[in-house]
Amino acid sequence: MTNLDLYARIEPMIGFYEAYEKLYEVYLQILESYAPGSVLDVGCGNGKLLAELSQKYHATGIDISREMVDIAKAKGLDARHCYLHELDASYDAVLAVADVLNYMPKETMATFLEDVAKHLVKGGIFVCDVNTLHGFEDVASGSLIVDEEEKFLAIDAEFEENILHTEITFFEKKAGECYTKEQGTIAQYYHALSEIVSLSPMKMIKNFDISLFSMESDKTILVFQK
């Protein structure tokens, strides 16, 4: 099991769904302005946004967490367990929702942005969001404990030198069994807007900040065009 597979199991306990709904609405509004025929959702997760995209567009989702993909496929969605560079098709729009770029160090992000451009038709758009510095320092950092009847979750996140290290400890008890313990660490990287723009082979045509988890701006939405 990868750390992202572990995240897939604890995601329902964290309580981000309401905030994610607001984020998805921002993406859907942006897409309405460009009316793409085909959309690729990179890091589609459990398929919540992919399901909404599929109602309006020819939508495909990919994720490197097999457990997430299995959840999305169970909803009847076109979700695939693979990396972007493993795809052959081109799309009118590519999305990277909920901090996808923040999971990549600078070098990996540069390669990813090149791959995005390769999978876009001419004039196609790439929409993504990244955490602001406030989003890392004041929102994501800290501890969280969730204690349910058969599950216990402890998260400890520390942001230093522009990297957020999140340690996850998860206990789960199934019927007639003892508790099982799983642990994992996830790293996320802060990227300044200027750094992302400089690494992208696409032209940035729009950017704006939004607030999902606090009164201040904790995310930046970026729109690029090939």
Describe it.
The chain has 226 residues and is of the alpha/beta class. It has two domains: 3-131 and 191-225, Vaccinia Virus protein VP39 (Rossmann fold, 3-Layer(aba) Sandwich), CATH 3.40.50.150; 135-189, Single Sheet (N-terminal domain of TfIIb), CATH 2.20.25. Helices cover 32% and strands 38% of the residues. It contains seven helices and eleven strands. It has helices at 3-14, 17-34, 48-54, 66-73, 106-118, 133-140, 193-199, and strands at residues 38-42, 58-63, 79-81, 91-96, 120-131, 142-147, 151-160, 163-173, 179-189, 203-210, 219-225. Strands 3-2-1-4-5-11-10 form a seven-stranded mixed beta sheet. Helix 5 links the parallel strand 4 and strand 5 (120-131). The radius of gyration is 18 Å and the shape is globular.
Question: What is the count of DSSP helices, taking H or I runs of 4+ residues?
Answer: 7
Poorly predicted tracts of residues: none
The first-to-last residue Cα distance is 36 Å
Structural class: alpha/beta
The CATH class of the largest domain is: Alpha Beta
Q: Would you identify the CATH H-level superfamily of the largest domain?
A: Vaccinia Virus protein VP39
Q: Order of helices and strands, N to C? A: HHEHEHEEHEHEEEEHEE
Helix content, binned percent: 25-40%
Beta-strand residue percentage? 35-45%
